[in-house]
Amino acid sequence: SFSLKADWWGDKYSMFVHYGLYSIPAGVWNGNPVKEGYSEQILTFGIGFSDWYEAYTREFDAKNFDAEDIVALAKKAGMRSVVMTAKHHDGFCLFHTQTTSYNSFDGTPARRDLIGELAEACHRNGLGFGIYFSLIDWHFPAAVPFSSHNADPITPAHHEYNMAQVTELLTKYGAVDELWFDMGSLLPAQSEELYRLVHKLQPKCMVSGRLGNDYADFCVMPDNQFPDYDMILPWQTAASIFPETWGYRSWQERGEVSTKVNEKLEDLVNVVSRGGKYLLNIGPMGDGGIVPFEYEVLSAIGKELEPISEAI
Ligand code: JFZ
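Above: the input record for the complex with JFZ. Below: its predicted structure, written as tokens.
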């Protein structure tokens, strides 16, 4: 109903978190910076072989990943909810799933369910909680093998796998306010089935337009863009701190905090004043710790927003 969507819509500024195995190589392969593609996609742009990439599971201890720290930063930044990658294109799951051992609980020394930890921290602190879920999967054997583009079709077995994982994500972690499906080129029947599943399990959960075939509760604009026409559906703009990557990139030239704060504040105002919702990304480091530059930028934005926090 409209009022349910208005609840979600009342929150106009949220945190996006890209964290996964890719945060360990952090945009470096064989000692060289991988300049092509986003760093969260280093498997396809830099490393190439799945077993070399999978070896990062042995290093994945997430020892500085603290959901309370992430939630505290979101609050400090003036944000009302957090959306984190439960599974990115690499197929590695940050939640404890029965569908594959390629997950942070069963498949790494961390032995932790990071999605569970973040969901709890959001709920405990009164923040909204959302999940990013990649529809393509470069690890699942029955999926279309990874290719040079991301809009691959979804095989029937892969669709069932996604259905099972989405079922887990929407039944084990309490209220999920947003499901940020991403990429993949689904058949209309596949988009419909996932859309209905989400609303059956969590009627209030908002589904992103990247599920495809017009099965959507909100539209996602390209990075830092806003529409120059009236939108019928609610819309959201996702933004990364640097447009080149969403996942952590160790060699990123970051420049001045103040320059970045002004740039992101301007984007936030442009989006929110046109009726959109701004989803600003952080990409924690390999150990899960927050990048100091990102901490400073978000804190400074929060300070600027203090006088108008009621309006956002
Ligand atoms: C997708 C992912 O491929 C990427 O790794 C990241 O997770 C991002 C948030 O989402 O990338 C996209 C997809 C579509 C657009 C931009 C980035 N777009 O429509 O401009």
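Notes for the reader.
The pocket of JFZ is lined by residues 38, 40-41, 150, 182-183, 222-223, 238, 246 (CB under 6 Å).
The longest strand covers residues 81-87.
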